[in-house]
Structures are given as C-alpha cells and as structure tokens.
Amino acid sequence: MDKLGYPEIGFYLNHPLMARIVELKEKGFADAKEYDYAPVDLGDAIENYKQILDITGDVAANIIEPNSESVDLEGPHLENGRMIYASKTYENLDATRKAGLWGVSMPRRYGGLNLPNAVFSMLSEMISAADAGFQNIWSLQSCIDTLYEFGSEEQRQKYIPRVCAGEGMSMDLTEPDAGSDLQRVMLKATFDEKENCWRLNGVKRFITNGDSDIHLVLARSEEGTKDGRGLSMFIYDKRQGGVDVRHIEHKLGIHGSPTCELTYKNAKAELCGSTRLGLIKYVMALMNGARLGIAAQSVGVEQEAYNEGLAYAKERQQFGDKIINFPAVYDMLSRMKAKLDAGRALLYETACYVDIYKCLEDIERDRKLTPEEKQELKKYQRLADAFTPLAKGMNSEYANQNAYDAISIHGGSGFIMEYKSQRLFRDARIFSIYEGTTQLQVVAAIRYITNGTMLQNIKDMYEGLEVKDSLQGLKNRIGLLIPVYEETLAYVKALENQEAQDFLARRLYDMTAELVMSLLILRDATKAPELFEKSANVYVRMAEENIIGKMSYIKLFQVENLASFRAAEPEVAAE
Fold first, then answer.
1. What is the pLDDT of residues 148-204, one digit of tens each?
2. Cβ proximity of 207 and 170 under 8 Å
3. By CB atoms within 10 Å of each CB, which of 140, 276, 459, 565 scores lowest?
4. What is the CA radius of gyration of the chain?
5. pTM score over 0.90
6. Element counts in the chain: helices (H) and strands (E)
7. How far, CA to CA in Å, does 99 sit from each of 26, 60, 72, 102, 288?
8. CA-CA-CA-CA torsion for 323, 328, 333, 334, nearest 10 degrees?
9. Nearest CA to 198 among 224, 232, 152?
10. Could you give the CA distance from residue 565 to residue 575 in angstroms, rounded to a whole number?
C-alpha cells in the first residue's frame, strides 16, 4: 500500500460550503503576504489541502498501519508514575511530527497550517483507518482549539507553538464518581496567593493520553458548590510536575491509546478563561469538537472494516464459488458500504457547519460582524449543534456494525487473532461509549427533533435537492417518508408523557438521522454517481425499511406499555 486515502474523501473538498469556508478561514488570503506556503486563492487552498491529504495518506499507509499490530500487542505501560507508549507509537509520533501534522488547525502565526475542521476530519479519518488507537493520541491536538478560543493571548503564545511542534494534549474531565455526570467533578482548585497561581488536588480517571504534555482540566474552583456552576477550566503543564499516573487501564481495544488514572498533588495550573464557566461553556465546546473527532475516527474504522470484508469475500471460496457472489454476503457488503458512505456524508456536512460558525467567531475577535454575518453565524451554529450528536452517534454505531459484519464475512477466521477484523471489532466498541454514549447523543439531539428544527431542516434539504433522473425514484420514496416521520413525531409529542417520550427518543433519533443521510447520499450520488450511486440505492431502501418499522412500533405504543419494558420490578423493602 503506497498511500492510504480514498476518492470518497477527496470528493468532500468540493463540498458546496467549501468555498465559503476557505474565504472565511483565510480572511482575504492575507497570510500569503507573510507566509510563502499560504494559499493565494480558493484553487490554491484546495491544492494545499490535497497535498496535506497525500502526505497523511503516505504516513498512514507506510508507517502507522504497519505498526498497528505491534502497538496493539505491546500497548503502553507504567514506569515510576509515568506512562510509556508502545515502542512503535514513538515511531508514529516521530513520523507525524516530521510530516508537520501537529497543530494543523491553528493559525500560521503560531506555527499551524490553518486547516478547516473538515480537512482535519479527513486527516483524522485516514489515521484512524490505519490505527484507531493512534488516532486518539494524534487527534487530541484539537484540544488546542479550546485553548485558542478561550485562553489569553499570553497563553496562546506559550502553548500553541508547542502543540504545533508535536507536543501531545489531553482533556482531564472524568473522575471515579463523575462519568457522564460532570457536574459531580470534585477535583479541587485553590488559588495560591503566595505563588500567584492555582493548585489542583484530586483524582481523574479514564483520561485518554493522560500523561500528555499539556492538559485541559475541569476542576472545582468555588468552595462549597456542588453543581456545574462551581467548575472552571485549567491548563496544566507537565513540565511543572505534580501529576502522576497511578494506573493504566487494561482495555478491550484501542490498546495503543493509554487510558490513565491521574493523581493531582498540589499541581500548579493556570486558569483558562473565566471561573465558573468550565463546564457550562468551555467543556461543551471541547466535547463538541471531541464528538466530531469520534465521528471521523468511526468513519475510518467503517472504511477499514469494509475493506477487510470485501478483500476476504473476493478470495474465499465455498461450494465452488467466491463467497462475494452469495446474496447473503453481497447484501452484507452493500449495506456496509452504504452505511460508510452515508455516515461520511453526515460527518463532512456537520464539519462544514462547524467550520463556518467557528470561522465567523474567530473573525468577530478582530472586528464587529455585519448583521448578515451574525445571522450566518447563528444559522450554522444551530445546525452544528443539531447535527453533531447525529454524526457522532450514528457513525459510532455504524463502525460497530461494520466491524461485526467484517467478522461475519470472515466466518471462523474472523474470530482468530491473526486476522485484522477482530482488532477493528475490539477498537470500535468504545466509539459509542466515550465522549458521550449513543444514549447521551440522543439526549443532546432530541430537543432539535421534538421542537421541529430537524423536521424543517429535512424539508428544506428535500426541497433544495436536485437529483439526476436515475435517482428521482429514490427521492420520491424519501418524499413519502417525510410525512410518515412528521406524523410519528406528532404522535410521540401527543402522548404528553416524559417517560414515554424518553423511551421512544432513540427511535425518533434514528429516523431523523436516516432521513438526513438519505438526502445527503442522494445529493452526493448526483454529483459523483461513480462513487455513490450504488450506495444511494442501498441506503435509501435500508432507511425506508427502518423508518417504516419504527413508525409502526411507535404508532402502536401506549403509555401503559411502559411497565412491560422495565428491566425489573421495583424493589420491595425488607420487612
């Protein structure tokens, strides 16, 4: 393999929003006067992105992927309170640093490449296809976006060039008693008047890349508080000392990615932004970026699982024929590819929404936005907020499904450790858990579903969609599904029972996402039928099957049914 990369990824460099993203990101191409590698126009910017994708594909195919098996077997280990990566991970780090693939989203004045989020997601997807565990380490560089957004200029000057030079990052949020419920974080932050700094004391658990160089830490700065309003964000620099790794978790998958338990003992730290906004503002921004990162990671594994299944099906013979010719197998493969293509379309749609509003926020730091720009910012921020939980949740589930199917195609061989499919299966399982489980993605998305925002988005997408003649029948079928979806949504709201609505929320979420992805894959198939037309035919039919099934389930549901679904009877107190 000379290079890891797919024409489907490059296709999204021509996304309908890309020209606007480049215009905003490059701020009139002013950097071209100061940096000889900065683009001078849209075409030049797209060529720059292609070159970076080529470089990443080369590193992924020739270094990261060949190292992945060794890294999975060795994993990181603990020595004297410090985490030591698997030996081949150091090779991966060295290669990505030499290729200039660190701090890539940051402005050039700090040593970055000023890449849009969409392009960063492309790099992330490619690295994940090579090794999802290493992608975790590499992609955490995106924590620097939060420091750039909320830190002071002095902090930017101090930390951003270090990340651009290849220093790693982590976000230290979770604690033994605060998993998804981050309001319960109790790591204590106290101000040291004598040293004019903050001191951190406590324990953090399940911290990815936990012995990194630069940490963003959620801690309780307001004594006597017990909710999110008492939490602030801090920057901890490993050079200052005061944090030890107490334990490295032994995990099912992503073995190359160290998951650490940390002890903070009077560790010196800097406040990032303002006190009390750590959870309600800064972590929300951090988590949305991380969730998009997991969506990209998931698409990378979806792709690799499909590749493994397809390659094996083309070679394996049973009953005198290649198994790829068996309907049960090619049905499985066609669904894997359809999920991959539809999920990727949702990923880059979401990434482009994020890019536009983030670029406008960045411009707003230098000047006032025009009324039109303010409206544009609000529009794309709303879209990004609504689409991010769909992109993360659906792609993480699709990665699990594709990895499962890849093993099924391999049969008994898929259960053997020498085959790659088992590693993809083990790696994928965490995607629908960390950075917010799929159930939490449903919670994040449901208000945009029940308040009609997503219904209107779907109607707008449908009305604005022009398809080639051969796809018109598929568009018509989606047109018939939209009123089914609207009617189902109205039925759930009419129940006027919160528990019932929560119980049915996952089905509404799936229906919403499948309609959105059906429309996106049709759009893309019209522009590039050679890449996407087959997947469009499969995905729309699959979505139709699922949406009608979920509609039937919901329309037959009664509130009194809830008792039947509870896992256990209420406990009775002992006499």
1. 999 999 999 999 999 999 999 999 999 998 878 899 999 999 999 999 999 999 999
2. yes
3. 565
4. 24
5. yes
6. 19, 11
7. 22, 11, 23, 9, 27
8. 130
9. 232
10. 27
